[in-house]
Design brief:
659 residues, alpha+beta, eleven-stranded mixed β-sheet
Length: 659
């Protein structure tokens, strides 16, 4: 179904923000701000905060916050390390300031950003370098910045539990501490207390991949004081990171990721926690209590924070399904939200639209955390990348007038090469799973009879066709074996220049030149390597995908052996997307077995017969059924259609090559 567009809370929040702005306008002197206990009146010009505070002289310190859980079972509650940088001037005047937070497991093991930056410390253990530019840019503008080591990583106690209670509580406890509701200490083991008396409690969480996933999880607790989150390429349900309706997406489970990110100390003491990850995440793909604890979508109704979501539509690490189901759930509950969707893979917007991203994020945090009425909440909800570095906007997303349309596959003149349109088909098509092939192989031979896939192609389109939201494909298949996996992909057949998302850098090229975004010190530079779009000229574009274990046909949460020779019906959830198939191009649906490097193969090698009368795709079309208009029939050519390179093997680390 299409992701439903809902009017966000457009009345209550602007009134609150206007009231806050009016209050701030009366607090023009440091004495007034200090006496009232109101949020900091940061100097600003033309509706934005200005860099008036010294970055070099900023206070750099660490605190250890009690999470109130004992994840490593050592008899004492775990403390997580919180590295802090904040303006010294506001500390002197007693002004209380908002906080931007990035909670991550990657600060020591893997690094953050395109240049894999890690935290560094001086001889006293005080922080020197904070990865990324958030500190360099926002601290001079009157924000505090905190970088939290999740439990079991870097300088924190506890154990990594991959999206579970410990991960979420690691960051939630810090939000509580910033609001005066949790205990903080000056050391990891000592008894000396420290309070965040410099914070006004208004907190915004940001982060890519795992970090953004933690932000989703903390927001889903409904914690007070968390005003906004900016999840970039983030997970919304950990089950959907490792499985697609029973089909395994990687060759290992969350225990492997825990080993990759945990500190050496945690590795020595957290064997029992990792074993629970193994036991709770069986390779069968069955849903368990472990996955329920790590599914944030059902808790979208608890979210108090606004959400500015960013995702790559060709992200094959954290697939767009995560964004789609989270966005849909937030819309159902009227959460204030904004989004950017790029053509890139698992890439931070700082590395594909840098200047506009910094400007937009600055205005977003000013609005959400400082109460500046800069109009960012009245601008179009969605920015969508249509071609490399060419963006369009939508007032709401999906656009109004988007409706679900059922498209049906039908037989063509050659075996395995059928048609796609609104009329029901008859008969069957048959293919045999070939685990050595992938979606690129199928699409390149979509016009040709091949044994490993069935392709269905529309006539050339009479006008542009825009698909905006999430699609599903329902398949009725009769297998020859007791196990079988299915894949379904939507393909735009026609020439285009796109970001080369299958390249190692997933659609960007890193350049030697640097640009600077904020203030620098000797130990923490604000200057980062520039990037440009890495493009590919193609004859087809795969823009949405979905997978399933056919054994989950009767129960999406639990698989069972198939009955050879018996038809089974299952619905595959395809990733959300926003793609325009241009006039003259054709839309194709391909159904096949194992998608090499994207799902793991089944135990058997099945041949599957598809019942076309009981198979269809439901796609979200802007303009509904009337939008699907085709021109006169054209005989498909039997030739190879060039696309991007095949999907490369992916490691199950939500950070990827551009973490």
């Amino acid at each position: 179904m299409p992701i439903r567009a809902r009017r966000a809370r457009l009345l209550r929040r602007p009134l609150l923000l206007a009231a806050l702005a009016a209050l701030l306008a009366t607090l023009m002197s440091p004495g007034a701000a200090q006496a009232s206990g109101a949020p900091d009146q940061v100097p600003r010009r033309a509706g934005e905060s200005r860099p008036v505070y010294s970055y070099e002289d900023a206070i750099r310190e660490s605190a250890w916050v009690d999470t109130r859980i004992d994840g490593d079972a050592d008899g004492r509650t775990d403390r997580v390390a919180v590295d802090i940088i904040r303006p010294r001037e506001t500390d002197r005047t007693g002004r209380r300031i908002p906080v931007i937070m990035d909670a991550s497991p990657y600060y020591a093991c893997c690094g953050r950003g395109n240049e894999s930056q890690k935290k560094t410390y001086d001889e006293n253990g005080d922080p020197v370098r904070f990865p990324l530019y958030y500190d360099n840019y926002f601290v001079p503008r009157g924000y505090g910045y905190v970088a939290v080591d999740l439990a079991g990583t870097n300088r924190s106690d506890g154990c990594v539990d991959i999206g579970g209670r410990s991960d979420v509580q690691s960051a939630k406890a810090v939000v509580d501490w910033l609001n005066g509701r949790a205990r903080g200490y000056t050391s990891r083991t000592g008894d000396e207390r420290t309070r965040a008396s410099w914070s006004n409690g208004r907190t915004g969480m940001i982060g890519k991949s795992y970090d953004g996933t933690v932000a989703n999880g903390v927001a889903a607790t409904g914690v007070k004081g968390l005003k906004t989150i900016v999840p970039i390429g983030a997970i919304s349900s950990w089950y959907d990171y490792y499985f697609a309706k029973g089909a395994p997406l990687f060759g290992s489970g969350p225990d492997g990721l825990a080993r990759a990110v945990e500190s050496p100390e945690a590795r020595a003491r957290c064997g029992a926690v990792k074993q629970r990850l193994v036991d709770g995440a069986p390779r069968s793909g069955d849903w368990t209590r472990l996955w329920s604890e790590r599914d944030h979508v059902p808790d979208a109704g608890k979210v108090r924070a606004s959400v500015f979501a960013v995702h790559g539509m060709q992200d094959l690490n954290v697939r767009m399904k995560h964004f789609g189901q989270w966005w849909d759930a937030l819309a159902e509950h009227g959460v204030d939200r904004k989004l950017w969707l790029s053509q890139a893979g698992h890439v931070d917007p700082f590395d594909f639209r840098r200047a506009e991203w910094v400007r937009t994020l600055h205005r977003w945090f000013d609005h959400e955390l400082l109460g500046v009425d800069n109009g960012v909440d009245r601008e179009p909800m969605a920015d969508i990348e249509r071609a490399p570095d060419r963006w369009t906007t939508d007032r709401v997303w999906p656009p109004r007038g988007t409706d679900t349309v059922k498209l049906r596959p039908a037989k063509g003149t050659s075996p395995g090469v059928g048609t796609l349109g609104p009329r029901p088909g008859k008969g069957t098509e048959t293919f045999t799973d070939d685990p050595s092939l992938n979606e690129t192989d199928w699409a390149e031979r979509v016009h040709t009879t091949t044994p490993a896939k069935a392709g269905f192609i529309s006539r050339p389109l009479a006008r542009d066709l825009r698909l905006s939201g999430s699609s599903t494909v329902t398949v009725t298949a009769t297998p020859t074996t007791r196990t079988a996996h299915l894949s379904a992909v939507l393909v735009d057949l026609g020439p285009a220049t796109i970001r080369d998302y299958a390249h190692d850098d997933e659609g960007i090229t890193t350049l030697p030149e640097r640009t600077c975004w904020g203030a620098s010190t000797t130990g923490d530079s604000a200057c980062f390597k520039e990037t440009e779009a890495k493009t590919a000229t193609v004859e087809h574009t795969i823009f949405s995908r979905g997978w399933a274990d056919l054994g989950n046909w009767a129960d999406a949460d639990r698989g069972q052996p198939l009955t050879p020779g018996k038809p089974h019906t299952i619905t595959l959830d395809l990733a959300a997307s926003d793609h325009v198939v241009p006039k003259g191009h054709r839309l194709a649906l391909i159904v096949a077995g194992t998608d090499r490097h994207l799902i793991e193969p089944p135990a058997d090698t099945p041949t599957l017969t598809i019942d076309l009368a009981r198979t269809w795709a439901k796609v979200p079309l802007v303009g509904g059924a009337k939008a699907f208009a085709t021109s006169t029939s054209v005989t498909p050519r039997e030739s190879r259609l060039d696309g991007v390179a095949p999907p490369r093997p992916l490691n199950p680390v939500p950070g990827g090559s551009t973490s």
